[in-house]
Design goal:
The chain is 49% helix and 0% strand. The chain contains six helices and no strands. The chain is flat and about 55 Å long.
Length: 126
Amino acid sequence: MAASINPWSQVYTLAAGKTRANSTMTTLRKPDGSETSSIQETMKVMLDHLFTEDTLHHKNIRRTIEETICTSDDLEFSREEIKHEIESFNDKKAPGIDGITGGIYLRTFDTFPRLITATYNQYLKR
């Protein structure tokens, strides 16, 4: 996506440590196509995007995923298996819509290996 269309390109730049010393994110493109005019408005747009109203649909999804699914062939992932998979990500590829590259993900895993492993094993259980 072009940087002018993708509101997360600046977030990716910050997370990847590719910012210039004087670079400050102050605007995002709002759903109506206009841009935010202050850091406060930018934060409000981000929070509105990330934290939506709790609807009956969302409550049903949460209820469904909280039910434990147990099958006999679901063995937990080992830390080594997860690290091997993350290392296989191509760091030269552009990030997805979330802005996270393979390199960022690997650094996160190296910092929090137990957390990432536990998270994947919880995904497997659910």
